[in-house]
Structure formats: C-alpha cells, structure tokens
Amino acid sequence: xxxxxxxxxxxxxxxxxxxxxxxxxKFFLYNKDSNLLSLNINIWFKINxxxxxxxxxxLKGLGKIFRLDSxxxxxxxxxxxxxxxxxxxxxxxxxxEGNFYLNDIINFKxxxxxxxxxxxxxxxxxxxxxxxxxxxxxxxILIPVLEKYIKFFDFDEKIVIMKNIEGFLNL
Length: 171
Description:
Blueprint: E1 2-4, E2 9-19, E3 24-29, E4 42-47, E5 50-60, E6 65-68, H1 74-78, E7 84-88, E8 109-112, E9 115-125, E10 130-136, E11 139-144, E12 150-154, E13 159-162, H2 166-169
C-alpha cells in the first residue's frame, strides 16, 4: 500500500459492501461501460485524508466484485464499505489527438456563444446523458453534454462554448 499526497485522482466508482469472508468487495462503476479495471492499474481510496493505493488482485462476478492486496478478510473489507475509489490520472490510457476525458473540463468557464455563464463545477455521468454542473448566478444548474449544445472546447483558454442552452438558464 502506497501513500500519496497527489490530488490528481479521478473517482470511478464506489464500494457497495464486502462480499464473502476473504476480503472481496462488491462495487459499482460510475461509468458502467468503463474498462479501466481491466487495465492492471492501481485503485486508490481516500483514507484519513490521505490517498492509499491498492493493487487489484482479482476481478470477478461479471466485473462487479474485486479483491485488493492487503484486504484479506471481511473486517478489512468492511473498512472500505461505501467508500469511493479513484484512479490516478497518470494511469489513464493516452487518448488520440482531439479526444479528452470529460472531467478535464472541470473548472473551465462556460460561455453561451459570447456571454459568460459560469464555472463548471463537476461532471455527472447519468443514464440519460453526461451533464456538467455549473455555478450560474450562485445557483447550481445541470446542462447535458450533447452535440446539439456544444460549440467547442478551448483547452488553452480553459473555456467551453455551448449553444442553445437558454432553456437551462431560465430557472
């Protein structure tokens, strides 16, 4: 188990509960289509305000149960119940030119063509679509990240320009 003070972690799922007596954990992924756990990467948990790394030893149950190093019995597993788990950004696969991870736009400014709308606070992966959570006039609003609303992403200026989103702003 390694300690790290690096805050470059991306939440990918949550432990639901222990499974059995050998330290296995039942979990769910925020992105059900993700294959990150099959890439032999470290799983990170925030424990006592510090990130700790665990090697993924086993994945079974149609990808819904895993076993981690240093988690050898139900008591160990119980300590991780309901905990969110993360991957390090450094462990993510390199993307092709022009592609990006959606969480890369967190803290970007959102514009509706020319007018600044607010700051992107978070990205939510919901069954119907991916959404951005935006601070708009000191209120949090959700806007779907769909092609019909996206004009472009500017990673140099850290802005997202969307179109036709007026209906989401009329609260």
